[in-house]
Amino acid sequence: MNKALGPELITYMPVMKKKKNKSIKTEESKMQLTQEQSQLPEPSGTSTLSTESHPQTPQVSPPTPPSTSSTKKRKDTITKTDDSKRMKLFWEQSQLPEAPTTSTCPTEGCRQMPQMPPPTPSSSSLIKKPRLKAVPKEASREEGFQRGPKEVMVLKATEPFAYAVSKGERKMFHATVAADNQFFQVKVFDVNLKEKFIPKKVIAISDYIGRNGFLEVYNASSVSDVNADRKMEISKSLIANANATPKINRLYLQAPGTFVNGVYQVHKKTVRNQFVYYEIKDNTGKIEVRMYGRLAQINCEKGDKLKLTCFELALSEKKWQLRSVIHSFVKVIKARKSKRRPRNPYSYMKTSLEFS
Predict the structure, then answer these.
(1) Phi then psi dihedrals of residue 114, to 5 deg
(2) Is 235 in contact with 183 (CB distance < 8 Å)?
(3) Structural domains in the chain?
(4) CA nearest 177: which of 227, 216, 123, 128?
(5) Distance separating alpha carbons of residues 59 and 84, to the nearest angstrom
(6) Average pLDDT for 224-234
């Protein structure tokens, strides 16, 4: 049969068989391609290929990741962006005041935390408590002429008394006044002003002279009333210090020439020539009081108390004394004596004669 067909037919037959096998493979490839394409994302645009015109269809490879150059370009973009943010952050932080302590961390590793405002203090902490000032134990001093006016509250005043001068005698009185956190000793040489120096009254003093620890007022025009509604708060501790009697051991620490006010009990009385000496004592020690002139005539005995005003501290022959001076004032507080007589146990006994 082969011989009958001739060599052309023999040659053709295997070619046809080969072509048939090739067509089968092409169909299988096409089916495989169709299956792979169905699993791939739909491309933006497709081109239809004819199987007949292209007997051997190329294999469609799966989508590949971006090339190395594209990835590197994206990383460079991110790096530039981070550098820009880092420079901006550095510029903003350089404009802020430097904090006492800082914590550093990479920009990429931690986000910039927003600055929190400081905690708002409670309303009670916003109210400032007044600072307590130390209460003075000594009278304040001023020196020389003072124009004023100085507003003060009167604490106490003595009754007017006469003092000797070269041409007779004059009258004056002492007073203690306070202002704010201080108190003053005042010598008033016009007794007509006594009606203004009423305890707890607020007055204004002007044109006065500061001398030896006292404020000296000479003219009635130097003291004036203030508004009746004017109030002045003086602490109880300040009033107590202004009226306090200094301990005797403290007098030894004062400089000679200091003037002393206080109430002391008499333990001994001695008269020598024109002077009268009183020994006064407290629980810290004792000291001698020397009086002369008009004050030597006062009626004071052992057990009584002496209320001294404006007595000068002096040192005589290594002995401390309180001496009376021209403006000194003394008030004697007599010791109380019991008016009850000792009871006689026989005073109420009646004899038989009283019944007869």
Answers:
(1) -65, 140
(2) no
(3) 144-241 (2.40.50.140), 245-333 (2.40.50.140)
(4) 216
(5) 46
(6) 87
Q: What is the DSSP letter of 246?
A: P
Q: List helix spans (H) across 244-297.
A: 248-251
Distance CA 62, CA 79 (A): 31
CA-to-CA distance for 41 and 43, rounded, in angstroms? Answer: 6
- Other C-beta atoms lying within 10 Å of the C-beta of residue 276: 19
- Contact indicator for 148, 205 with CB cutoff of 8 Å: yes
Of the candidates 154, 224, 156, 217, the one whose C-alpha atom is nearest the C-alpha of residue 188 is: 217
Of all residues in the chain, the percent with pLDDT exceeding 70 is 58
Tell me how far CA of residue 267 lies from CA of 147, 275, 279, 313, 346, in angstroms: 45, 17, 6, 19, 37
Give the global pTM: 0.59
Reported as half-sphere exposure (CB side, CA atoms, 13 A), residue 69 has a value of 0
Q: Is the four-CA dihedral 307, 309, 314, 316 of positive or negative sign?
A: negative
What is the H or E stretch that residue 71 is in?
helix 68-95
Q: What is the mean pLDDT of residues 175-193?
A: 95
| Residue keyed to tokens 């739909």 | 42
- Collapse the DSSP code of 192 into the 3-class scheme (helix H, G, I; strand E, B; otherwise coil) and give the result: helix
| Region of residue 67 (left: phi > 0; alpha: psi -120 to 50; beta: else) | beta
